[in-house]
Amino acid sequence: MKNIKGGICAPQGFKANGIVAHIRGNKDVKDLSLIVSDVPCSAAATYTTNKVKGAPLTVTKQHLEDGQAKAIICNSGNANTCNSNGIELANQVCDLVADALSIDANDVIVASTGVIGQPMSLEPFASHMDELVAGLNVNGSMDAELGIMTTDTKPKEFAVEFELDGKVCHLGAIAKGSGMIHPNMATMLAFVTSDVAISSAMLDEMVHEVVPDTFNMVSVDGDTSTNDMLVVLANGLAGNAVITTKDDNYALMKEALFDICVQLSQGIAKDGEGATKLLTCHTVGASTKEIAKKVAKSVITSSLFKAAMFGKDANWGRILCAIGYTDAEFDINRVEVDLSSRVGKFKVCVNGMGVEFSEDFALEVLTEDEILIDVDLHSGDYEATAWGCDLTYDYVKINGDYRT
Amino acid sequence: MKNIKGGICAPQGFKANGIVAHIRGNKDVKDLSLIVSDVPCSAAATYTTNKVKGAPLTVTKQHLEDGQAKAIICNSGNANTCNSNGIELANQVCDLVADALSIDANDVIVASTGVIGQPMSLEPFASHMDELVAGLNVNGSMDAELGIMTTDTKPKEFAVEFELDGKVCHLGAIAKGSGMIHPNMATMLAFVTSDVAISSAMLDEMVHEVVPDTFNMVSVDGDTSTNDMLVVLANGLAGNAVITTKDDNYALMKEALFDICVQLSQGIAKDGEGATKLLTCHTVGASTKEIAKKVAKSVITSSLFKAAMFGKDANWGRILCAIGYTDAEFDINRVEVDLSSRVGKFKVCVNGMGVEFSEDFALEVLTEDEILIDVDLHSGDYEATAWGCDLTYDYVKINGDYRT
Question: Is this model's pTM higher than 0.90 or not?
Fold first, then answer.
């Protein structure tokens, strides 16, 4: 498996585009994206666990009941959530796409991201649909990515290449996500394309096996959004024998999907609103997988620890504090914690007690922009990884005045 | 019942003091406090639920096994937590107090607050104990309060007067708490004194009845601290018949304790690190008390909503989002939300959908420093209140560089 360029257009048979439709007002930023497969795709998705769900999620769920889709339409600037006519609007958007592409509206996946509870107009979708469709092209992945970003500062576009049955296969992905990021599910839009041939039932299983250890292990601010959605489309053009059971090819594709989802998760965490650092907590030695996950998430979710990382302050007591309030049973007196970055590693805690370390070296380590927190519970064989970011002035600035 | 002055020295028979012992380094700030009753007290306490517990909590729990105490010693500047010799140190501090007051070390309650995992020296306690004891006086409540504060910007000192059996009774309290504030228990040190005569068993029951709806409903930053402790001492000098059952007098004293704990909770939330606003979420119409509490806490814990309040931004979608990710079952489509302050009230959401409001008036309402969020779930008769604060640049500043 290797990383390649091209994003969602790296797999065969996918085109994409992203344009300025002025859904975000008069700003000259892309805010409407379309992804289309030349042929029908097996499709699978996961959605936010928030009780408040964006109208597009309801419509997309209906459209995916048959496990098939051909296109994804997504706007930024308005979440189309808590609007009384939201579902009607989401259906009308699908109809516009279906008409323009001459496909069934049931094969269109719709997603929205932006402010919740703002009236949304169909007009920008209607007046820009021809332009959006006309511009579809095999190099359009980055345009599509730009169209779904909100407070994101960096595009998140990845692709990998691997082989099944001697056939070259691809997975490509774009994602948006910067604030309102917290499991479950953590909390973004991600669109993954593939040219692998796989049944929609197997694709659905695969998605639900991969998400718990990837997207659901990301937190930026503890707020689970209303519009999260991960969609995977697989159009089969790679020509492998269709995956219909959990065989070796299933395992290989799952490995590739896992890899893509880890890259997206890291990208989202690193681009958390206002973030200057990617924080990765790797917990080992837990007596269950669940405990390992809870501890890792607890550490990267702690506001105090996140603020300390922004300040390059090796205030490891806050790590231990966050481990300590995890809702899980383990012996706190066995806990060992190391902090590291590419310049080196230092130990801060053994058997739940502090150990001496060089403050100068600690500052050097924590000045880097990717910090690893290794936690060993010394209580078993399970491990987990969670991704987060530091808490900064800019998080407050961005969110103190988001609507204006 | 009425509010009075005097704090922990308002009840008869209590003296207090707070001095500069240089536990916080060379800073010229009070960091060591002592509260003493002239006579033995019934005593009860609750503690943090964090698995990492400060050494003083272990020692205090042992000393309160008999339900009796006479003195409370508390330092700021060092949490005495995760130190290998922490319990030994906490015991030595109690011994110093016991010697200086000629009382049993078992009657001394010990508490610490400050940085976790820093070595602590007995020296400042030993060298300042005579000064601390010599200065004990009936006007010492505020000095004691100053000695336990860390990043607090405002002292939290309250007292109430009420009658039992025609006898004038008092409850007084001081508290510290500003960051690392989150249920359970939320997350501070609070010392309450009283001259009511009550058995330690009844006092213990009362504390555990009052805390779930007061301190456990406060959140500043979602981080449950390692050193939380609420201690109530009641010395009986008011001369009422000793409360030994849950009779009318129990109910009256509980009402007074509830009132004091609400005032302390509001004081802690309002003085949350970096806070400019007190946020109070009052949830009604829930089908269970537990759901009402979870919803209220979810709203005042949301980083996104807290940041929006700092920005005076009526971004109510974030309130609905936080209600929506509450881990509880209810119908989101019945939810109604109002925002208000002393200048007025406006409705933002009915039946889970947005309603129009004047942005100008919203700005006027949200410019105030105490904001009320009324949530009606329209699903039952239970209600709950939670207290929090806005998320500001200063929270990040304070916590980005706390140790230096």
Answer: no
